[in-house]
Amino acid sequence: MDSIRIRLIYDGVGPVHWDGGADAFGVQDKAGVLHAGIPGPAGATIFDLAFQVKSQDSDAPVLSGDFAHGPPAARFLYLGWRNAHGGFAQRLKLSLATLAWSGVRQAIERQQPLVGTLVDHHPKATSTGANIGGSRPISWAPE
Asked: Contact, 113 vs 5, CB < 8 A?
């Protein structure tokens, strides 16, 4: 089974309503733990993650590992913010199901990550004050 690195660049301001600190923002693993990123250019946060690539006999790549959530044909990452009391202020789902074999093979051969940037400068909340999370579109391409 091949391994691949995924680099998520978060260029955003976080939820509208959030009382957590820097240690309460990150990519969520299967145990529910948030893993912090590192500061990047212009205030972005960078997350470098490792995955295993399942059989290349399927129509689309299937990633597995600590950060791969959901069923095989619809894998995704969770980017989350916890409030001071431990509950989620917001979670965003970033699809891994859009990965193409060409990009995955190229990243493996070159030993470089697939990179996706999420730009989120205008977060929204409902009229009752709940942050609006959910799925966000993201494209992944070799570095």
From this structure: yes
